[in-house]
Hints:
By secondary structure, the chain is α+β, with helices and mostly antiparallel strands. A hairpin with a 2-residue loop joins β15 (280-285) and β16 (288-289). α4 (45-64) runs antiparallel to α6, α9 (295-314) packs parallel to α11 and α13 (441-450) packs across α19 (592-600).
Amino acid sequence: MSEEQNLAEENFEVDGEYGADQIQILEGLEAVRKRPGMYIGSTSARGLHHLVYEIVDNSVDEALAGYCSAIEVTINPDNSVTVVDNGRGIPVGINKKAGIPAVEVVFTILHAGGKFGGGGYKVSGGLHGVGASVVNALSNWLEVRIRQDSKVYMQRYERGKVVKKLEVIDSCSPDDTGTTVTFMPDDTIFEETVFDFDTLKTRLRETAFLTKNLKIVLKDERGEEPVERTFHYEGGIKEFVTYLNRSKTALYEDVLYFEGKQNNVLVEVAMQHNDSFNESVFSFVNNITTPEGGTHLTGFRNAITKTFNDYARTNKLLKDSEANLTGDDIREGLTAIISVKIEEPQFEGQTKQKLGNSEARAAVDMVVSEQLTYYLEQNPTVAKLICEKSILAQRAREAARKARDLTRRKTALEGLALPGKLADCSDKDPKNCEIFIVEGDSAGGSAKTARSRATQAILPLRGKILNVEKARLDKIYANAEIKAMITAFGTGIHDDFDIEKLRYDKIIIMTDADVDGAHISTLMLTFLYRFMPDLIKEGHVYLANPPLYKLEKNKKVWYAYSDEELNSILTEVGRDQNNKIQRYKGLGEMDAEQLWETTMDPETRVLSRVSMNEEMESQIDLTFTTLMGDKVEPRREFIEENAKFVKNLDI
Length: 651
């Protein structure tokens, strides 16, 4: 039995019976409609946008095969999406095995397409042949037009079923070839059916970087004035590194680029160090991101660690008495893209985000080792700069090791005291516990009085914590506020991080609803993203939402969390002189009872979970660097571009 049938069977009891007739077998694309999450991950906004990526990936496969140079993606006024390419066009002839046109096979049969058997494509991305049929199954309607042999063919489907057979609807020039797909997501399946321009922009920009010379145009025709962005990078991943480093100061001018083929694996690597202290390395297989890395990333790390140590020893930059540089030392401030193309990628783990092919490790290691060695010999000035930065990182790492030993959270039996300012909870089961990170002693005092002592811990912080974007590890471990958080959470950070030791299921950042509070929240999120990202990925980090207003009238009290909510309350209760409206500038203005009722009571509070889309990790990394780094110009551009989205800004 096929995987989709096996997983999509519906077992149920009728009047207490359970037998052969109670097994429901889902035919064709019904399995996809019944269990969409199996095929696209979720039916949230993330899954919705995945539909576009699947169709675009098919066009990119044509580009990787050398037959497509341009892709155009348009969000239409009715929120349907059209993807046009100038590839060869999906074949329209009758497939002998299925007895129907090949294009119909592609759009109606799972695990069918040119990606199997090695004949159609050498390498491909997407869902390995299920992409087009899954998009079709999850759409209210889908139309495909194919320009081929001077003819324009068209076929239409509704919820995965053919409603118009393939027919010639027009003629075109012999040179005009390609495929046009337009689809409308099924609003009975997706929780959200409105496409976000910026989400698509980020993914398509990344795709263009990874496929040099491919031109991708994104259009949004829903507004009064159409919006259009074009992505076209002749330098490919070299330009990707330059783009990611634009908010940083490069350590040297060149973007190092290595390309080669080993063991039938095509390898591309681009890298450049900057003056920051964070590593920003992103890996891809057949243009698909691998957030958990894998063998290709391991090969890259092995290659640069060995090559730089060999160079530093040979050129006496490291003394005989000094230890070798670690990979972390060498990768401090490194931005790199590792992209491999492989015929049959094998993925590990349930999430399929980690490459497992052993030949990829050897191929990347060999290509990078050989070409990096040659580059360093030809460019001794650059080589020395990198080695000197790595040696400074090594010294800071040793200082950090000594500081780290003081912050490691031991078990209760080992008796290391928690931070003195922490008001811990009495329940010792992490699943029941939450910790509020509160700015200032005033708000901290109110929170300690208001809390449920059994399950809620309070950690007040004094002022703004260290901006970790501009600090080395030793400075971070020496910072009292950060040290208090590390010890309280119990997980350790960086290489010592262990989520199993987390002492609280929820980490809630509770700051004032003003500009300073937003800055403190951003500083804390920067720290968590850089040194404890799994807390965010696993959904343990939240932002508290204290009310902005308190309205009193005739001894009754209402709280409003936005201007819109305040206006709604005023409309309901009437606008007159008996209204007493207080605009909260800080948590310290609330007494303990108000703070509990509005912000801390699990029954009535509003929390925002901090989430992270790993597919957009390079953009998230760039955003943190832009907001928290040293360069002013990229930050000014970011503010200008996003100012229209700001609400409740305190001036």
